[in-house]
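To: structure desk
From: M.T.
Subject: fold request, one chain
Message: Could you run this one when you get a chance? Sequence is below, nothing fancy, just the single chain.
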Amino acid sequence: MQNKFVKLNALILGEMFLTAQLEQLESIARESMDGKNMSNKKRQSVLKPIMIDLEAVAEITGLSESTVQSLIRANDFPKPRKASARRSCWLLREIEEWAESRPVSDFLPPPNTAAGGRNGKPNSQNALPIPQDAQTE
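Reply: Done. Structure tokens follow.
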């Protein structure tokens, strides 16, 4: 459940980032169309992070921090870069490239998801009502 929350949170943050960038670009376009001189204004920008820490890597990928570390030890995940004397981070670009390189899953969703309960049998809480005309005696 927490994994789904982390993925959803990462998607929301990504959407918020893109929305902010779009709003900024629209603002710049409006100002340039109005003939305003932007050279006197201090430009503000919303930048995509270049380097991210382990917690952000785990959140973005949907993996736990320990799984990320295990994959690094197995040489199946990008290694961190030294950002300073006491800090290491990952290049976001490398994490995105790693994610894109992952194979498509062959696994089907388990039968107990969505409307089905255990062993594919519907639960009383999430079962859909059977229409009267479909019921047989």
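Reply (cont.): The longest helix spans residues 2-33. Let me know if you need anything else for the meeting.
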